[in-house]
Amino acid sequence: MLPLSIHTIISIASLMLVSLSATAATHSQENPPPPSPQAMHAKLEQIGKDPASLSAALKDGEKAASVCRHCHGAGGNSVLPEVPNLASQNDAYLLEQMNKFVSGQRKSSAFMEGLIKALTPDERIQIALFLSQQPVTRKPAGSTAQSAAGNQLFDKLCAGCHGKNGAGTQKIPRLAGQQVQYVEDSLKRYRSGTGERIDPRMAAYTRNLKDADIQNLAAYLSTMP
Ligand code: HEC
Ligand code: HEC
Fold first, then answer.
1. How many C-beta atoms lie closer than 10 Å to residue 54's C-beta?
2. Cβ contacts of residue 39 below 8 Å, gap of 6+?
3. Are residues 156 and 87 both part of a single domain?
4. Is ligand 1 within 6 A of the CB of residue 70?
5. Is the full-model pTM beyond 0.85?
6. Given the CA of residue 221, which atom of ligand 2 is nearest to it?
7. How many domains does the chain have?
């Protein structure tokens, strides 16, 4: 795939939204009120425990996720610095973030919200399951002085929640191998408190970070397999 710029990608997304919004309008006329996030998480868990439902959901998830490849890469392995990897990301975290885009608790430059709103609740669950099972194909970056400083800070401040290996848990995101630019942007958004990303835990843990700390942390995470 050609290394497209984020601006090109946003134009592609606007085009996709035009065709998707037609489908979304039909959904909203036919469907009952959407299930609560709690009900969606319960369903995700239930499907994960039943091999037959899981294998059907993975197939549907692969289909529904085909529009996501333009930015997030094949199988969720992003090649764009501003766009997060989603491959092997934890399923409940993926579902939670999709729901946050829909409810407005998480804000991006408008297109992510539109794309996710065009999905049915079941498609969100299926995509979360599908992406969580995709292998990571990116190669870890090599260590540098910057990443060594990041390693110390990560073990001290972050490993308690995200795990020493950066794998997270069901609801805490995996950070290992994440795109450097995306990690820096995300940490600055939590720190700024301007509302693009709101989470009291991350606000507390980023409040005292300097820009150099953020760069070191991002460099370290990109070295993790
Ligand atoms: C036009 C490019 C583009 C397309 C297409 C796209 N995304 Fe995104 N996505 C982004 C960007 C950029 C971000 C980071 C946004 C931010 O943090 O503000 C993002 C963030 C996300 C996140 C949050 C990840 C995290 O680690 O917190 C999820 C989940 C997600 N996208 C799912 C999807 C799904 C599912 C699709 C397909 C239905 C999709 N995206 C299509 C660009 C895109
Ligand atoms: C108390 C637990 C906790 C600690 C400690 C913590 N985090 Fe987090 N982190 C979370 C949670 C929960 C989220 C998801 C928040 C949300 O919904 O936006 C998150 C999200 C993130 C994200 C966004 C990931 C993505 O895919 O978008 C990054 C990057 C991150 N944390 C890095 C760090 C770093 C670096 C540190 C240490 C300085 C740290 N975290 C410490 C709980 C924690």
1. 17
2. none
3. no
4. yes
5. yes
6. 35
7. 2
